[in-house]
Amino acid sequence: xxxxxxxxxxxxxxxxxxxxxxxxxxxxxxxxxxxxxxxxxxxxxxxxxxxxxxxxxxxxxxxxxxxxxxxxxxxxxxxxxxxxxxxxxxxxxxxxxxxxxxxxxxxxxxxxxxxxxxxxxxxxxxxxxxxxxxxxxxxxxxxxxxxxxxxxxxxxxxxxxxxxxxxxxxxxxxxxxxxxxxxxxxxxxxxxxxxxxxxxxxxxxxxxxxxxxxxxxxxxxxxxxxxxxxxxxxxxxxxxxxxxxxxxxxxxxxxxxxxxxxxxxxxxxxxxxxxxxxxxxxxxxxxxxxxxxxxxxxxxxxxxxxxxxxxxxxxxxxxxxxxxxxxxxxxxxxxxxxxxxxxxxxxxxxxxxxxxxxxxxxxxxxxxxxxxxxxxxxxxxxxxxxxxxxxxxxxxxxxxxxxxxxxxxxxxxxxxxxxxxxxxxxxxxxxxxxxxxxxxxxxxxxxxxxxxxxxx
Length: 456
Known about the structure:
Blueprint: H1 3-9, H2 20-27, H3 31-40, H4 45-52, H5 56-63, H6 71-81, H7 94-98, H8 105-108, H9 113-128, H10 156-176, H11 178-194, H12 202-225, H13 229-245, H14 249-265, H15 269-286, H16 289-305, H17 309-325, H18 340-357, H19 363-376, H20 382-399, H21 402-416, H22 423-437, H23 442-454
GO molecular function, one term: DNA binding
Protein name: Helix-turn-helix protein
Pfam families: HTH_3, TPR_12
């Protein structure tokens, strides 16, 4: 009997979900206890695996106590087992997932993605160009009130605590992916948002706006990393408003760059380019050469996706120039990630994209840049290293160096093992396709099979 037959023949009596012990386990999202209760009702591990789309080894690990925290996995479990979504706090999808979306988001989820992109672009332009957006008009983007009490009056110490938490959580995102820390980011944000209602000096409040904008930006980025695009959009919109209120142009530029990256991931380079260009206005106004370099590099990527090699090369050249002029020692935390290693990674990314979309000869520029990036990335940047290794392997495949490409592809998969990031699969898909095209080679075939199994 195969997994599909197992799933079809497995029927869980709806009354199972009504038992007090089960309801408590569901409310706490204690999947280990849920599975144990199912086993007591005669549902086998194999049947649970078939219904939830998990492997039997995963089900076994969960039964032994492994926690399930990623929203997409919880959602899949609820759907597969036919658990009433409200019992697990999943009833309102994006609103429950993000905890910071407004009442109109159920309707927004039904909108076409291109409409959502246009709405965000209009909102971003309104904020960036100086329109007043605080107040009632911004409630559609704002977070729901948290329950943890915040101070009635705040000082710089309170703001520094928010900044420190954001730095620590961002480091976890870089190393392990958004699925590892997003819930913690949202929880911190729920508490920090209340501080906006507290009293404090003008200087403290201004710095608080910036600190919360950065935290919202991180919430947006970690949401994007696990494919919660609507949640990401809401966080980035709120981040924009707060950064503008705090009069911090470099952060406005950084937020627009990050939302542009969401659209690149969705294969919408035209929409991404508009956000990058809007961010460029804020970056230039800020006088931050590093922020300008970040935007130039990503504009180059967008043009490469469109097959426009001339514009991509011009912008890569400007990226190098702006980076060389940048004051790295005094760069703000949210743009400091863009160091020399990241410059090489972006150069490699742009040339890889051109090699795939326009001219295969770009591999000769992509390979040395990506090699430098992969050599420099440490364990603390595991996600970035995975992306770079994957592109490096793809370039070797394109050049016909299949054995070496397969070897590097294996390293990319090893690096991806501990990541909780939905982006990894899409970013590595070009490598899988190149390996599949060369399946007459045993190394390529083995890599393709391993990747297919890994992302199943």
